[in-house]
Amino acid sequence: MVMSNRVSKRGTRTFYLLGRVIAGMALVMLLSAACVQPPWFATWYAAPQNYNIIFPGVTVPPLAISNQSVRQIVHTSHGGSLIRVKLSNLFGTTPVTFAEARIARSTGNGGIDPATDRTLRFGGKGTVTLASGEERWSDPVYLQVPTHSDLAISLYVPLNTPVVTTHTIGMQTNYLSPGNQAGATVMGNATATTVYFWLSEVDASTADASDSVTEQEAHPYKVVVAFGDSITDGYGSTSSANRRWPNDLDNRVQAAADDLGRASVVNAAIAGNRWIYDGVGPAGVTRFAHDVAGVSGATHVLILLGINDIGIGELIPQQNVSADQIIAAMQATIAQAKASGIKIYLATITPYNGASYYDAAGEMKREAVNAFVRSANGADGVLDFDQVVRDPSNPTALLPTYDSGDHLHPNDVGYQAMANSIDLGALDD
Q1: DSSP notation for 5-27
Q2: What mean pLDDT is reported for the chain?
Q3: Within a 13 Å sphere around the CA of 52, how many CA atoms are in the beta-carbon half?
Q4: Closest CA to 102 of 87, 81, 80
Q5: 77, 358, 409, 428: which could form a disulfide with 264 (CB 3.0–4.6 Å)?
């Protein structure tokens, strides 16, 4: 009976000590996660849109991928050593299966550096199926990604799958090839495309053990989201050269890292987008929650949007909008940004005299909207892009030196001028 009590007491004490050890280990792990792992921040973004939806009366031929690999090139903003990738079937009406997904450093022309090639896993699995409407993050992978580097994200789609969720005007050469070539150093029989398929965001983390919570609070990460239409998407710039105005701004931001701290600039524009009506992408006022507030670490948003509301509204009478409607959408978005704790900067709408949908009525709307943007509108600041790129001798038109040729979209020089006009001090808040 005495032995039984001793055994019982010894067992109780053993379980007590074991419990303390387990609790201690759990605490260490929690503290480690809180103190060592910095937060995720977006380093690249492409706003998803429905490939099949353009403007009223405009259709596109259906597109599908079957037993093909797609290699997509992304140009990072601020780098890191831990990476995750978001795949999106946001607008899909059927599931999409990726039998393999990989990430590697790009060597150009569709090639990859095999020493950097990593499998992307989802919940530990190398194959993932996204239901219609679903988006999913990959598991983190350790990969040293320098600031302003090119990554290749390769997906193998084995089944005949309709293409719905895309970013159509990517201004970047991507590659499609037959069969499973996701891990190929160079894909054979590849064809070029400028579309991004099912890919919406790449995040980075420094995974730096020297970054304590106190240091992170003293030098918080900044993620600047550029939000708009084709002028922000970079239409008219040199393809595959990263000459959109958000890229040019990012070059300045990284050069000023000693003053600004760690920051990234990502592009959430959709060519053809509007404030009021869905069409090429959801309406700006409704997609803000996904494409700005939903971007990892978003702290600032720079918005240039409205010219398509004006121009397309003049072409499609049933979707004609007033300056007051555009202004109301801007005010609603200012409120969304404030509620999300995101600094918001509105840009004046750039000139478009000579563009295919220009007319005097539309110009009056543009000037009324710009007067609102320049006023005390409740935003955190104004980007006066109109003043930067207009022709002083003809203020309703782009300066010829900045005109890509369609009298609507700036060229590389014009986009650089827009980026140069932004006061970086606005991002130092």
Answers
A1: HHHHHHHHHHHHHHHHHHHHHHH
A2: 91
A3: 10
A4: 87
A5: 77
Tokens of 267: 């592009």
Domains of the chain by residue range: 41-203, 218-427
Assigned CATH for 218-427 = 3.40.50.1110
* pLDDT one-digit tens code per residue, 204-260: 998 654 554 444 454 579 999 999 999 999 999 999 999 999 999 999 999 999 999
Which residue from 201, 208, 199 is spatially nearest to 80, judged by alpha carbons? 208
The answer to whether the CB of 364 falls within 8 A of the CB of 324 is: no
What's the token pair of residue 37?
């792992």
Write the burial class of residue 13 (CB in 10 Å: 0-12 exposed, 13-18 middle, 19+ buried).
exposed
Phi, then psi, of 202 in degrees rounded to 5: -125, 125
pTM value? 0.90
Instruction: Look up residue 281 and give its DSSP letter.
Output: B
Q: Tell whether the torsion through CA atoms of 264, 265, 270 and 274 is positive or negative.
A: positive
Q: How far apart are CA 355 and CA 412, in angstroms?
A: 18
Q: pLDDT-based confidence at 17, cuts 50/70/90? A: very low
Provide the residue count of the chain. Answer: 429
Distances (CA, A) of 125 to 99, 122, 186: 10, 5, 25
Q: Is the pLDDT of residue 32 over 80?
A: no
